[in-house]
Structure prediction request, 452 residues.
Amino acid sequence: MDDLTERAKKEVPAEAYLRHGTAFRGHPPKLPYKKVKRTARLWPIAFVGIALLLGFGVYRIATGLRAPKGEADAGQQNALQPVGVATIGTGDIKVIVTGLGSVTPITTVTVRTQVNGELMEVGFKEGQIVKKGDFLAQIDPRPFQLAQAQYEGQLVHDQGLLEQAKMDLARYQTLVKTNSIARQQAEDQEYIVKQYEGSVKLDQAQIDNQKLNLIYAHIVSPIDGRVGLRLVDPGNYVQTTDTNGLAVITQLHPISVIFIVPEDDVPEILAAMKAGRQLEVTAYDRANIVPLSTGKVAALDSQIDPTTGTLKLRADFDNLDDKLFPNQFVNARLLLKMLHGVVTVPASAVQRGAPGTYVYVVNADDTVSARPVNLGPLDGAVYAVNSGLSPGDRVVVDGTDRLRDGAKVLIANNGNSSAGEEARPESSGAPDGKPAPPQYHKDGISGEHTKP
Prediction:
């Protein structure tokens, strides 16, 4: 221990004793830490600096490989933009009004019993096509047959009384002439005869009523159509107060479609109907893709719906192929009129922006210029042009997304297609055979209708 203390005194200077104010008191003081070299502390800073210098060098090398901004813009301006073009021509345009509609049967009958009784027999199958007069069901006829026999017996009895009263009346009239009886007795007999005549008529009416009940008990189809699902099974007691009935028969040939049109088109529709024109209506499926049937406008509603600003129209269809089914949602396209020999432009060439509606016209030097156009009705994928284009003009139909006024283009199809040659299948209304969405065509503004 003493050796350790002596050793500590030699290694620790005297200032340490003065600073601590005490001697070792048996324990040597802690030796001072050796100072850390400053070069070790600077290594992280040096590493970050080297990384920044390397990153800056890479950035300068990358930016140095780029062309100056002016040269890049010039290269973009000189680059040719490949586009597809079409040549403006003339053609026929259909002015069509489109509206949502529903297939509505002209006649729908709920077959109900007109007499009370047990349902003995059902003479139809569910979904069967029936003709007017076909047997449908039989109600137990025995109560009506017995009642008929009863009233027939009563009729015979009252007829006998009537004949007897007539004979007495004839006898009394003879005796009155000879003053053998009082005139009052003869007159009373006349009224007795009338009473028996009334009884006979009442009995005959009762008999006819039972015959009618027997006819009602034998139920037949009142119309041609399709029978729905059976609502009552044989063996049940049916009554005239039953609301569901026995079955529902729906007429299918012909059938109608009730659809709506905007009130702005009503004057033209009325004018056409007053002129004796048969307005053609084509019914498309709910997706507005497949044409189902073609019919004629039959009637207009008596008033415009103030909440929607639309008018209901009914169009009749033969529906011989059964493509229209009751309560089916359809899109109805009403052909209002036909425009002949008008300037047409593909819908794919029409652009809309801040200046309005315009197209890119290809000039003789293969540059394009934006030209405003005034469009007319839309027929499928082709617009009628009121002003702004002439037959022979070339317009861009493909690759317009990156064009600007004055840009030089590379015509991919050499301008061989024309607006009049654009494929316009009547069923789909699109160049590629795909359907155009429901549109209101009259004013040339595309407006897709929504479904219930």
